[in-house]
Amino acid sequence: MQILDGKIASAAIKEKLKLIVEKRKAENKKTPHLAVIIVGNDGASETYVSSKVKTSEELGFGSTLVRMDADIPEALLLDQIKTFNDSIDIDGILVQLPLPKHISEARVIEAIDPAKDVDGFHPVSAGRLVQGLETFVPATPYGIMLMLEHFGVETTGKHAVVIGRSNIVGRPMSILLSSQHPFGNCTVTVCHSKTKDLASFTRQADIVVAALGKPEFLKADMVKDGAVVIDVGITRVPDATKKKGFAIKGDVAFEEVAPKTSWITPVPGGVGLMTIGALMMNTLKACERKD
Ligand code: NAP
User: Fold this and answer.
1) What is the 163 CA–ligand 1 centroid distance (Å)?
2) Which is catalytic among the residues 80, 96, 117, 249?
3) Which atom of ligand 1 is nearest to the CA of 169?
4) CA 48 vs CA 20, 118, 174, 187, 242: distances in Å
5) Would you state the pLDDT for residue 286?
6) Domain identity same for 258 and 155
7) Of 67, 93, 251, 277, which residue is 20 to 30 A from 54 by alpha carbon distance?
């Protein structure tokens, strides 16, 4: 068993990005600039947003963070997005999800200029991904592809089972793994909450991507020997022994599954770190398009 270590792979991406940004600055080219909007003060969202802003700064990117109250009208959020759409300096716009119930996530995502859609959630980005066209790939599946590439995990001809069909993880992941790409070319099965006898699919899989948000769902008897297991899940589980009062759990029962695998991602320290690196890659791409 080998660990797909997000610290190692994301450090390599960050190093590469830092050098590119330094070179751009030396050549008087534009510095990539990411704008982030957070609505309300959900604990997990705060954590994600602060690490996105911190990483932007570490890499020499520009960053703007706008905080809005949980009860703001949707129109105010759409106005803020329009301001960022119109700004020459802002390259990428990210609205941290989930949003409060009275705000339509679909309307908010569609309000972002597709040229600045570094989260890759806009229908234009999703449509281009389906057609195999150049686009912004959602950061988590993109980060997983970068991780497979970093560690040279073979995918061509393999059977991949993706558990989850959300627009931000499962669906784009299944498209990428089945696409004509050096780390794609898989035969892909997508499982979801209505799948009957899910274990019968995962037991046949050479690669399992667990993205359902159910802590320690994937058990050892659901995985075949030598499989590659990618754990996307992040769930806060109450734990009185932890300072913060919770532990972070993935969708894979790591201790029992790991010994059966050829490669596995840990949680934390796996996919989550790659997601931020991939978001920064998208922001650089948005900036480079303006060159
Ligand atoms: P989501 O929108 O809630 O989607 C979950 C998917 O899992 C749905 O397609 C659902 O099926 C399926 N599902 C739920 N229960 C299932 C079950 N018992 N058996 C089979 N399928 C089941 O979640 P998401 O946004 O994709 O996120 C999934 C997990 O990844 C969460 O833990 C989230 O926190 C984590 N995440 C991590 C990162 C990262 O950077 N590491 C980034 C994003 C998300 P239906 O479609 O039938 O409802």
Assistant:
1) 8
2) 96
3) 26
4) 24, 15, 24, 32, 19
5) 98
6) yes
7) 251
Task: Report pTM.
Answer: 0.97
Query: CB-based contacts of 151: which residues, under 8 Å, 6+ apart?
Result: 2, 4, 9, 263
Say whether 242 is catalytic: no
Whether cis (ω within 30° of 0) applies to the bond prior to 259 is no
Q: What is the pLDDT of residue 224?
A: 98
Per-residue confidence (pLDDT) for residue 85, from 0 to 100: 98
CATH code (residue 37): 3.40.50.10860
Same domain, 101 and 146: no
- Residues with pLDDT less than 70, the chain: none
pLDDT in tens, 213-243: 999 999 999 999 999 999 999 999 999 999 9
Q: What is the CATH number of the domain that holds 213?
A: 3.40.50.720
Instruction: Kindly give the pairing relationship between strand 228-231 and strand 246-249.
Output: unpaired
Dihedral over alpha carbons 34, 278, 245, 231 (to 10 degrees):
160
Range of the domain at 170: 139-272
